[in-house]
Amino acid sequence: MAQARKHSKTAQRGLVNLRMAQEDRNIIDRAAKVAGKTRTEFMVEASRRAAHETLLDTNLIVVDEKTFDQFRSLFDAPAKPNPRLRKLMNMKAPWEA
Questions:
Q1: Separation of alpha carbons 81 and 62, rounded Å
Q2: DSSP one-letter code for 94
Q3: CA 20 to 30 Å from 24, out of 10, 38, 42, 66?
């Protein structure tokens, strides 16, 4: 029974072959070792993270003209003064402190 489950998990996985410079492979192997992961685990995790970031950076939200105008007016409006904003604006930048 456990073998059947293992086999079905294997059937769901695919193979990806990559060609890369030896120095790239070496640094990936070093990083994977430090992270306590296999090369495959490390590369899949890093690729998935990069894919999510790329998709999040390229999402398109389509709205009607009225909704877009409301959004634009809110976005373009100056910030309303409040205690937290005043405190932030009066803080020195970390590199100035």
A1: 31
A2: T
A3: 10
> What is the per-residue pLDDT for 9?
59
What is the model's pLDDT at position 1?
A: 44
Distance (Å, whole) CA 97 – CA 93: 6
Q: Is the pTM of this model over 0.85?
A: no
**What is the CA 96 to chain-centroid distance, rounded?**
31
> Nearest to residue 29, comparing CAs of 46, 13, 51, 53?
46
pLDDT in tens, 47-97: 999 999 999 888 888 999 999 999 999 999 998 889 999 999 999 988 987
Report the amino acid identity of residue 5: R
Q: Write the DSSP assignment of 18-61 as a string of letters.
A: ----HHHHHHHHHHHHHHT--HHHHHHHHHHHHHHHHHHHT---
